[in-house]
């Protein structure tokens, strides 16, 4: 299921049965929370989740203990809609990640990803 506010992927937090109906609580990748009743959205919360509940980890460490790998960010294949002439994270055919601008011949790269953004709430 996708978030009705931002269309991001969601995690199901809990399920409750009340008066013959099933209520499910979800949280999306952008921390919006919403409730469904038998697969119908009954309540959404525009505000993001507060600090009361701990956040799920956004990365894992690889088996050799040398790399932190994101669990929420994925490389995007290059296509005609890929931003040009701006700074991006680029993935080469050899699997090397680098920062750069995508201009002219793009045959050296296979995927891209936007740059990370620093939160303003000091989380």
Question: What does this protein look like?
Answer:
It is a single chain. By secondary structure, the protein is mainly beta. The chain has two domains: 10-48, no CATH class; 59-113, no CATH class. Helices cover 0% and strands 46% of the residues. The chain has strands at 10-18, 21-28, 32-37, 40-48, 59-61, 68-70, 76-77, 87-92, 97-101, 109-113. The strands form three sheets. The protein has a four-stranded antiparallel β-sheet with strand order 1-2-3-4, with no helix packed on it. Strands 7-10-8-9 form a four-stranded antiparallel β-sheet, with no helix packed on it. It is elongated and about 60 Å long. It starts with 9 loop residues before the first strand and ends in a 10-residue tail after the last strand. The mean pLDDT is 82.
Number of helices: 0
Spatial extent as radius of gyration: 19 Å
What helical percentage do the residues reach?
under 10%
Sequence of strands across the biggest β-sheet: 1-2-3-4
Assembly type: single chain
Query: How would you spell out the order of helices and strands?
Result: EEEEEEEEEE
Which term fits the overall shape?
elongated
The beta-strand count equals: 10
Cα end-to-end separation: 27 Å
What is the average of the pLDDT values?
82
Q: Which percent range describes the beta-strand content?
A: over 45%
SS-derived structural category: mainly beta
Largest sheet: 4 strands, antiparallel
Spans where pLDDT lies below 50 across 5 or more residues:
none
**Any idea how many domains?**
2
